[in-house]
Prior knowledge:
The structure is a single chain. The chain is mostly helical. It has 3 domains: 26-105, Dna Ligase, domain 1; 113-200, no CATH class; 203-328, no CATH class. It has helices at 2-33, 52-61, 68-78, 97-105, 124-133, 139-148, 154-157, 186-200, 203-211, 216-229, 236-249, 257-260, 284-291, 315-328; strands at 42-46, 50-51, 83-84, 87-91, 113-117, 177-181, 300-303, 309-312. A two-stranded antiparallel sheet has the order 1-4. A two-stranded antiparallel ribbon has the order 2-3. Strand 7 (300-303) and strand 8 (309-312) form a beta hairpin. The protein starts with a helix and ends with a helix. The relative contact order is 0.09.
Amino acid sequence: MKKKYKVLLFIISVLLTAALASGAVIAAANDVFALCKSGSEKTFALGEETALREGAQKLKEEGIIAFPLLFRIYFSMKSEARTLPAGEYTLSPAMSYDEIRYELFGIGRERTQVRITVPEGYTTDEIIELFLENGIGTRAGFEEAIAHGEFDFGFVSAIPENPARKYRLDGYLFPDTYMFFSDSSEEEAIAKMLANFERKFTATMASDAARAGYSIDEAVILASMVQREAYYLSDMAGISSVFRNRLRGGMKYLQSDATALYGDTYDTYKNAGLPPGAICNPGAAALEAAVYPANTKYYYFLTGNDKKAVFSRTYAEHKRAVARWKKGK
């Protein structure tokens, strides 16, 4: 009797295990192929290009998929991409994995790409014009995104509010060559440049700047001045040292000609210390020079007739350099 009871118990347990397993299989298949899924549409936003693992987890948190690991496995079988593109998408829990993938990557829609090169030292206005010339976005859209767009970067949230600042993201739109979809939103385009800035301005650079008493934003402002003042890369570290020496030495005005061109509130002949924001978007070399200046005792410089910087320790030396420059004109 006991033996029959054990056999019956074993059969029941096998059937329960099979039922549970089949239920899991059905649930997984339903998640992948949307056999009988339902749910209303919702906006799914990625502020920047996102790793597949994090993207799948966010899809689960938004209630669009149920099995993020399964999504990653399926996705990897269907695509060589290992990241999800930045943007806003209309997704639904009723969509299959393929439908979600098609929406995220624009599969099934004709999307042309545009190659845009942003030169080092371009102002934010000049960058906006580049996008408009290439048929991406509107000026109002870019200005709104720059002023109020939500970008998930620590350095963006750390930018101090200053009514004298022209554009919130001045200095952070990293100069480089990019590929953009022609139907990219303004926020997508900006997020791509901000993500590039985050890669170029490393955590080590941020900590080294902090040790010298500079926030990331202050380093970016200084780099923008170096970018605009230096004609040659070899002069950048020296020019940075002049501004850093002046700030450290308590000199009231930095006296950068480049800042005067950006507006009265930026003019470092009239206003003490660093300007309220960057005067352009500096490249990697200028950012590095701002964080790692040359070790000098220079407090003055001018650009010679050959475009090379001429450095001086004292005002008397500087006046003599100016006199020589005028004779050479």
